[in-house]
Amino acid sequence: MASADPVQIPSRALFRQPEVCEIAQVQPYVLRSWEAEFQDLGVAKVQGGPRVYRRADVERVLRIKHLLFVEGLTIAGARRKLQDEQLVAAPAASLAELDDLLSSDVRERILSVRKSLRALSAMLSQGPGSADTEFALAAPVAAAPRPKRASAAAAKTPVRRAAKKK
């Protein structure tokens, strides 16, 4: 079903449904069923207008077709595989976005905290008995029992009795 040659996607931003069906070599009902299964597939259609797909959607349709027809996955298996692939790619993208948002001052503070955490981790991983240990954790020492104090009410009671006896 799938050809060995890579599919050439025209260099455009948007595609209509018949064009996507032709590129992916699938029937329109198949594409519509994939839209129902993969919610983020395709651009929302305009009232009365045709279904429109971005270039990334066309690439995703081709990936779904490959997972289903070549690798033999079920729809649920293809969905899980695509989600896993997105999770792997997401951290790199979010780090790049985060780098753009951070000022150099914030970046310096984060690097300082990171350095401190690594130093602390290194200290804790040395374990007890290491010669470089500056401090050691020890069990708390039990405090000596305190002598019982008389309550304020008990201290005032004798004074009142003494006043009454006079």
Structure description:
The protein has a two-stranded antiparallel ribbon. The termini are far apart. The chain is mainly α and 166 residues long. The protein contains six helices and two strands.
Topology summary:
Blueprint lengths: L13 E3 H8 L3 H10 L14 E3 H16 L4 H27 L2 H23 L25 H14 L1
Antiparallel strand pairs: 1-2
List keywords for this structure.
single chain, 166 residues, mainly alpha, two-stranded antiparallel sheet, 6 helices, 2 strands
Summarize this structure briefly.
By secondary structure, this protein is mainly α. Helix content is 59%, strand content 4%.
Q: How are helices and strands ordered from N to C?
A: EHHEHHHH
Estimate percent helicity: 55-70%
Helix count from the secondary structure assignment: 6
Rounded to the nearest angstrom, the distance between the terminal CA atoms is 115 Å
Number of beta strands: 2
Give a quick account of the main beta sheet: strands, pairing sense, barrel closure.
2 strands, antiparallel
Which class do the helix and strand fractions yield?
Answer: mainly alpha
Output the strand order for the largest sheet.
Answer: 1-2
Mean of all residue-level pLDDT scores: 78
Rg, Å, rounded: 35 Å
Gross morphology is elongated
Strand content: under 5%
- Poorly predicted spans: none
